[in-house]
Amino acid sequence: KQEVTQIPAALSVPEGENLVLNCSFTDSAIYNLQWFRQDPGKGLTSLLLIQSSQREQTSGRLNASLDKSSGRSTLYIAASQPGDSATYLCAVRGLDTGRRALTFGSGTRLQVQP
Amino acid sequence: NAGVTQTPKFRVLKTGQSMTLLCAQDMNHEYMYWYRQDPGMGLRLIHYSVGEGTTAKGEVPDGYNVSRLKKQNFLLGLESAAPSQTSVYFCASGKPGSSYEQYFGPGTRLTVT
User: Fold this and answer.
1) pLDDT at residue A98, as a whole number
2) CB A99 to CB B105 under 8 A?
3) Cα distance from A43 to chain B (closest Cα, Å)?
4) What percent of chain A stands above pLDDT 70?
5) How far apart are the C-alpha atoms of B71 and B58, rounded to whole Å?
6) Mean pLDDT highest for which of A77-86, A99-108, B32-41?
7) Does B50 touch chain A (CB under 8 A)?
8) DSSP β-ladder status, A56-59 and A19-25
């Protein structure tokens, strides 16, 4: 059974810092991996999706990497801003062609201090 | 284009009561999913559907039933609510393709007393 772990569970940084969020998964047989942002009381917003054949994806100040063989992904946020404060969720999509559902980590709660 | 919508947004039930959560999507997606999110945990898959008229169990299906009579709607039912079903419920939809990316609704916060 796939298990996804995110470290740290919570992180507080001053504005302007570069930071890295970590995600690890136990079964390397994945289809792809997604990073989501969740604001309090809100739904999930997709940030980046990395296919299993890719090593990284970039969007603005965000860069996500994937090392499938070691079961790890990182989300790098450059020049953090207070508006980046949210919970960041990592999720992997399995190879099960019947459902293509996501297995989620429990998230990293990020607070960026002004 | 509203994307994925969920009704209701909030609900309080007493133990033993029943209710139905409605998920609707206007993107003509084949796949639809129901997840639950509990404090300090990631989302867990309850049930899913790969097309109109089909449903299947996910990781935590006990105590829930689902129906997909129309392609755009996916209903989640609780026949006899229990306090353990207090959670935030998210619906998602997606289409077969290169990424199977899912799009999420805003969630329904359910409290069972």
Assistant:
1) 66
2) no
3) 4
4) 97
5) 19
6) A77-86
7) yes
8) unpaired
* C-alpha separations of B53 from A38, A39, A63, B30, B49 in Å: 31, 33, 40, 11, 8
**CA pair distance B20, B34, nearest whole angstrom:** 12
Task: Reduce the DSSP state of residue B93 to 3 states and report it.
Answer: strand
CB contact under 8 A, B103 and A46: yes
State how far the Cα of A40 lies from the Cα of A18, in Å rounded to an integer.
23
Q: Which two tokens stand for residue A53?
A: 């054949």
Whether A95 and A31 have beta carbons less than 8 Å apart is answered as: yes
User: Given a cut of 70, is residue B1 above it in pLDDT?
Assistant: no
SS3 letters for chain A? CCCEEEECCEEEEECCCCEEEEEEECCCCEEEEEEEEECCCCCEEEEEEEECCCCEEEECCEEEEEEHHHCEEEEEECCCCHHHCEEEEEEEEECCCCCCCEEECCCEEEEEEC
Q: Cβ of B43 and A104 within 8 Å?
A: yes
pLDDT tier for residue A95 given thresholds of 50, 70 and 90: confident
- Give the one of A31, A42, A104 whose C-beta lies nearest to B42's C-beta: A104
